[in-house]
Amino acid sequence: ETGVTQSPTHLIKTRGQQVTLRCSSQSGHNTVSWYQQALGQGPQFIFQYYREEENGRGNFPPRFSGLQFPNYSSELNVNALELDDSALYLCASSLVGPEGGYTFGSGTRLTVV
Amino acid sequence: SQQGEEDPQALSIQEGENATMNCSYKTSINNLQWYRQNSGRGLVHLILIRSNEREKHSGRLRVTLDTSKKSSSLLITASRAADTASYFCAPGSGNTGKLIFGQGTTLQVKP
After folding, report:
1. Phi and psi of A85, rounded to 5°?
2. B1: pLDDT strictly greater than 60
3. CA dihedral over B53, B57, B62, B63, signed as positive or negative
4. Domains in chain B: how many in total?
5. B97 is in which domain, residue-wise?
6. Backbone angles phi, psi at B47, to 5 degrees
7. What pairing do the DSSP bridges indicate for beta strands A74-78 and A103-104?
């Protein structure tokens, strides 16, 4: 169903550690966005990348950072993990602009203990 | 970009019935999208309606948009147990592509 793959699917980290989540965009898509979804809430926009440059950021601290690579794959890095960072992290890709809708991956479930 | 607010927060119906969920937003939009999320999984794009459209169909889905009331509705006809999911609307007001989601409507379809 989806052309976006995320890895790993589940992850457990200790408070204070650093984590890298990965996303492989759907072929042909040049825009990638990352979202954080806490249990029972809607996804919250973290940031978006277009042609390897950050193209918009939500209300997240600088310890949330990202990269987009020339092949349009992407990483989300979170430093100094806090318990509240426990969530489902979703990656979504599209062609520039939302006209075709976004294709979401199945997410990475991060648990911080 | 702005947030859409879905209503009701939860909806429980019997299989075969229709399900209607609503979305309200605050400022002008270029388009509005609806997404579905099965439990703990990624979102699936259902339909996009542009600001100059009033109604759009896709299979058993019917979406309406009333820009004067700043609201949209999603109707699922002849619901099935597999329609059980959370549904989110995302108003779009530019070309940034940033989607702002509300808390969604959780739909339960009982067999």
Report:
1. -80, -5
2. no
3. negative
4. 1
5. 5-110
6. -165, 150
7. unpaired
Give pLDDT, residue A1.
42
Does A98 score more than 60 pLDDT?
no
Provide the number of CB pairs (under 8 Å) joining chain A to chain B.
Answer: 77
- Check CB contact of B96 with chain A, cutoff 8 Å: yes
> Token match 């339909």: residue?
B47
Phi first, then psi, for residue A97 (nearest 5°) are: 85, 150
Exposed, middle or buried, A12 (CB in 10 Å: 0-12/13-18/19+)?
Answer: exposed
The pLDDT tens digits of the residues spanning B3-29 come to 788 999 999 999 999 999 999 998 888
Q: What residues of chain B lie within 8 A of the CB of A56, using their CB?
A: 96-98
**Considering only alpha carbons, which residue of chain B is nearest residue A93?**
B97
Rounded Cα distance between A108 and A15, Å, is 17
Task: Measure the CA–CA gap between A5 and A25, rounded to whole angstroms.
Answer: 7
Task: Quote the percentage of chain A above a pLDDT of 70.
Answer: 94
Alpha helices in chain A (DSSP H): none
Give the CATH number of the domain where residue B64 resides.
2.60.40.10
